Hints:
Blueprint lengths: L2 H18 L26 H18 L6 E4 L1 H7 L4 H14 L13 E3 L2
Amino acid sequence: MELHQQVRQRLFAIEQAMRSLSMWQPLPPAREAFDSQEPFCIDTMRPEEWLQWMLLPRMHALLDQQAALPRRFAITAYFEEAFPHAAALLTQLQRLDDLLNIDPPQDPHPQAPIIQHD
């Protein structure tokens, strides 16, 4: 299976895990929350808001455009701190991390952006 298809499956699995944990929100945060300069919008959004309203839409947009995917992707550690008891969600996030950290990358775009927050 092609990398973009695998990533899309992971994104849907993350959404499903969030829904099953009742983390999925019907309305986005206030517009100002999206203007944060902090990693994960930590100063303006809850972790689940960032996943739903920032990461998932941005990743789907990259996939829709057949754009380069991020490499050296590492978000699970942050969510292990935020949701220590959300095993299903953490498993899906780790699978996304692992998929985007395949070496050498299977993505045909050599200049992929790097997304990593420590």
